[in-house]
Amino acid sequence: MFESIPVEVGLVHEGERVRKQEMQVELGGPSIPEKFEIVRVRPADQIADGAIEIEGPDIPQMPEGKAHPIGILVEIAGSRVEPDLEGVVERRIHEYSNYIEGFMHLNQRYDIWIRLSKKAYAKGLNSLRFIGQVMLELFRNELPIIEKIQITFITDPDQIKPLYAEAMQTYEARDARARGLSDDDVDTFYGCALCQSFAPTHVCVITPQRYANCGAISWFDGRAAAGIDPKGPIYAISKGECLDAEKGEYAGVNESAKQRSMGEVSRVYLYSAFGYPHTSCGCFEGIAFYIPEVDGFGIVLRAFRDLTVNGLAFSTMADSTAGGRQIDGFHGISIEYMRSKQFLHADGGYARVVWMPKEIKERLQEFIPAEVYDTIATEADVTNIDELKSFLIDHHHPVVERWKEDTGTEETAQPVQVFSGGDIPITAAGFRIILKNARITAEKVIIQPVRPPHKPGGERRDAEKH
Ligand code: SF4
Asked: Would you say the CB of residue 91 lies under 6 angstroms from ligand 1?
């Protein structure tokens, strides 16, 4: 099928990484503010079936080793193709393009990050046209409901600008559609295993009130995808008995997660970052990270380039969050989930969020309860944990109520997880014992400043001098 493509194309290449020093060119990625990929359904007579257009420079005209703007527009038609399917077909761009040897595609929508390796380029993969050909073939073969398809790569920044703005409006309209529905209104959730090539035990559970971590698939998208291809990577999950309404635990979800994760994940709390949190692959739009010093959550989005209030960057925390594990306090989330009434519901919702980037705080203002909005700090207010504590106290953030203060000692009020989700090896008496997926819970975590031992009469100052 891919004889004309100069590199291999197949499942075996899915999940391949292209490191910076190995890349011929980067398309999109963190340094390019406006980039997108989008699928639109069009009337059949508006599509030149099989056409692949490149508007702007192609790969050989792009400076080697540098990032370049990109927009990918896939237009489809078919008698059974509904606009509901746009989001789902769009997510397949990630899957199909990753089959190409030496071609790495990460993330989705306005966050895409693509790299082409020098090796693949040297083998002759020197045009976006090849990428388009692979996508055309796979879309036609895997999704036969698509009767006509054309693909346009836009690499001219002036042309990307208006199309990017239009794409953002389309994403927003899709997301808004699911907002009227609650998890109690439906009997069926949807699961997605598209990212298992990157994180084999990860399974997304998509509900009306818990949007997929990547922010690309809503409950409606899940329903449409499972309807046309029930045996595909997006499938229906019968909710089953509700085991815990606060945490969002359902018998059907647990059963499905167990099956799809090969037994690694047997329980899922949909609305909590603790206990049995929803797993994360690596495509999440943001991370909710627990800050033990204040017993609250920080939020960071992929696009945030600075250090967060705990001194860590998004990329550092992403390593702790990804991989299909259930890690307490490191929770992959989508922006749309942050608009949900069930957002971290069991952990306190926004009343537990203490820090987030200014841009997203302002963007989500109408979804953050008015009484806590001003009490949440941003990078413009504080830059470290000490400043954060003072800010929370000064602004009467609800988490302050959770603290018990005594001179120089602060105690968290709830039992907290101090280690979770990893393996602890113990070697004793000639045996190696591995506590697999261990969790250690402490009834109390006491955080005390470490004071230097008292030295009488100026001794300390003298010692410091030497
Ligand atoms: S992040 Fe989840 S919903 Fe999105 S493509 Fe991956 S598995 Fe599917």
From this structure: yes
The pair of structure tokens assigned to 453 is 């031992």
213 lines ligand 1 (CB under 6 A): yes
- Residue 303 makes CB contacts below 8 A (sequence gap 6+) with 30, 111
Return the CATH number of the domain spanning residue range 181-402: 3.40.1470.10
Half-sphere exposure at residue 282, Cβ-oriented, CA atoms within 13 angstroms: 17
DSSP letter for each residue of 395-411: TT-GGGGG-EEETTEEE
Within the chain, all domains assigned CATH 3.40.1470.10 are found at 181-402
134 lines ligand 1 (CB under 6 A): no
What local confidence, expressed as pLDDT, does residue 268 receive?
96
Chain position carrying tokens 């000692």: 409
CATH code for the part of the protein at 11-179: 3.30.1650.10
- Report the pLDDT value the prediction gives residue 61, as an integer from 0 to 100: 98
Report CA(192)–ligand 1 centroid distance (Å).
6
Return d(Cα 443, Cα 307) in angstroms, integer.
Answer: 30
Residue 6: closest CA among 103, 151, 150, 138: 103
Q: 192-206, 302-316, 340-354: which has the highest mean pLDDT?
A: 340-354
Residue nearest to atom 1 of ligand 1 (CA): 214
Establish whether residue 214 lines the binding site of ligand 1, counting it when its CB lies within 6 angstroms of any ligand atom.
yes
Q: Is 283 in the pocket of ligand 1 (CB under 6 A)?
A: yes
User: For a pLDDT cut of 70, what percent of the chain falls above it?
Assistant: 86
- Which among 325, 319, 327 has a CA at the least distance from the CA of 420? 327
3-state secondary structure 210-265: ECCCCCCCCHHHHHHHHHHCCCCCEEEEECCCEEECCCCEEHHHHHHHHHHCCCCC
Alpha helices in 322-434 (DSSP H): 358-363, 370-373, 385-394
Instruction: Say how many Å lie between the CA of residue 216 and the centre of ligand 1.
Output: 8
Q: Is the CB of 225 under 6 A from ligand 1?
A: no
User: Which atom belonging to ligand 1 lies closest to the Cα atom of 213?
Assistant: 1
Which residue's C-alpha comes closest to atom 2 of ligand 1?
A: 204
Structure tokens at 19: 């490191």
Q: Is 93 in the pocket of ligand 1 (CB under 6 A)?
A: no
Tell me the best of 214, 270, 302, 331 to mutate to test the pocket of ligand 1, counting ligand atoms within 8 Å of each CB and taking the most: 214
433: region left, alpha or beta (phi > 0 left; psi from -120 to 50 alpha): beta
pTM: 0.76
